[in-house]
Structures are given as structure tokens and as C-alpha cells.
Amino acid sequence: MKSCKQASFLMSKKLDTPLSFIESISLKIHLAMCKSCAECDSQLLSIHTLCQKRHIDTSIKDTDTTQ
Amino acid sequence: MQSTPASYTADFEALRPKLLAFTLLQVPDKGHAEDLVQETMLAAIEGLTRYSGTAQFDTWVYSILRHKLIDYIRKQKRGRQLFISDEDTSGLDGMFNAKEHWNADAIPSHWHNPEDLHMRSHFWEIFDLCLLHLPSNTARVFALRELMELETEEICDCLGISEQNCWTILHRARLKLRGCLEKGWFLKESNA
């Protein structure tokens, strides 16, 4: 079975690109068995979504038409 | 609503060092980085009439800088310097033991309510400190991916690195940032 280090690589990679079927399955199996990695997985996702929200209401809106 | 450029002068001055630090991640030449920050501030002043006030002022200015940096990085592509990967290829060794399982002091703790954190400016101060604490190229790739939201394919193209290399750098960046945020924010919050 995959190590925590390898599993954490896949947790990170899936935020950047879809995992292959094998990668996805082996990550899921690892996460189901390893509480620490499951925690890490949700935290990396939190960081990812927080970064997106940092800009969510900051994109320069095309409001030129009002003036 | 009657905000004048003058009323934002203090805000701009407070922001300048942060904007410069963020720019230096992508533009190592300090003179050039300062020019970009200057251009960003001028663009922000010109755009003040369009600033609705709904977004936080500093994040609005960041979004202008972000557009300028992305432009800069895309233009640089042809004349890019060789991207030198950071020296710390073993940067995660402290987190995992010989069997590549979590070391006791690196096991992720539970984070309470991370969802609403983007509203808290103090969180972002810690976040930026953690980011700038990463080795420069690691921070650079992370910022391109997560703060400027470029796809890894484009990052690789701009920096001249392989996707595998890019994923490896992002993996390292995310785990280190995770650990730093936990120490700097989440553990303190849960003790508060």
C-alpha cells in the first residue's frame, strides 16, 4: 500500500490535474485507512479553496458602463 | 463614495511593502519589481472611481497586480532564464519517517472551521509570512498556481519545467504551508 508521503503527493496532484483511475483508487483506499492523511487531504483542499476565495470578490468587474 | 486618491494614500503606503514582496516572488529584479508595483498603484488610483468598495481595498489592489504579473510572466516566457529548482529536494524529510509515514510532530491536527477564514485579514498575514518563508522557487510556483490560478501546464511552459517537477514542487509547498499555518494559526486559535 502507498505510504503517507506518496498519498500526500496524490492529494496535492489532484488539486492540479485529474488523477488516473489507479491513482484515484489507491488514494481513496489509503485515506479510508489513515486518519492523519484524511485530515491532511481536507486541509490541502481548504487551503486551495481559501486561496480561490481570496480573489473571489476582487476580480476587476466590468462596471465601466455605469459612468 | 466620494473617496479621493488622497484618502487612500495611507492605504497605499501600508500596502506597498506587501505588494513588493509578492512581486519579488515572480520578478527577481528589484528595480523591475518596483516599477510593476508603481504601475499597479497608478492603475489603482486611476481606477478608484470604479472601485465599488464591496471588496477589501487591499485585495482589490492585489487583483490589479495579479493581472500585471501574469502579463509579465507570459511575456517573459521567450527570454526566460533557466528555472533553477530549489536546493531542498529533501524538504519533506522532517515530516515523514523512514517508512514514509507521518512523524509524530508532523501529524496533521484537526482544524476548526477553516471555511470562513478568507474574511479574516489576520489569517492572510500569517499565510503570507508562511508563503514567504518557503524557498523562493517553491513559493513562486505555489503563488502562480494557487494565488494567480494558472494551470500547471502554463506554469511549466512559462518556467520551462516538466509537469512532474511542477507537481513535486507544489506538493512540497502545500505540505510546508500546511504545517506552517497549523503552527501559526490553527493551534493558536484552538487554544484561544
UniProtKB/TrEMBL annotation, chain A:
Top-rank taxon: Bacteria
Name of this protein: Zinc-finger
Species of origin: Neptunomonas qingdaonensis
From TrEMBL, chain B:
Start and end residues of each RNA polymerase sigma factor 70 region 4 type domain: 126-177
InterPro entries, alphabetized: RNA_pol_sigma-24-rel, RNA_pol_sigma-70-like, RNA_pol_sigma-70_dom, RNA_pol_sigma70_r2, RNA_pol_sigma70_r4_t2, RNA_pol_sigma_r2, RNA_pol_sigma_r3/r4-like, WH-like_DNA-bd_sf
Assigned keywords, A-Z: DNA-binding, Sigma factor, Transcription, Transcription regulation
Superkingdom of origin organism: Bacteria
Keyword Translocase tagged: no
GO biological process: DNA-templated transcription initiation
Keyword Transcription included in the entry's annotation: yes
Annotated RNA polymerase sigma-70 region domain residues: 12-78
Record NCBIfam families: Sig70_famx1 (TIGR02943), sigma70-ECF (TIGR02937)
Family label: Belongs to the sigma-70 factor family. ECF subfamily.
Protein's recorded name: RNA polymerase sigma-70 factor, ECF subfamily
Naturally occurring in which organism (per UniProt): Neptunomonas qingdaonensis
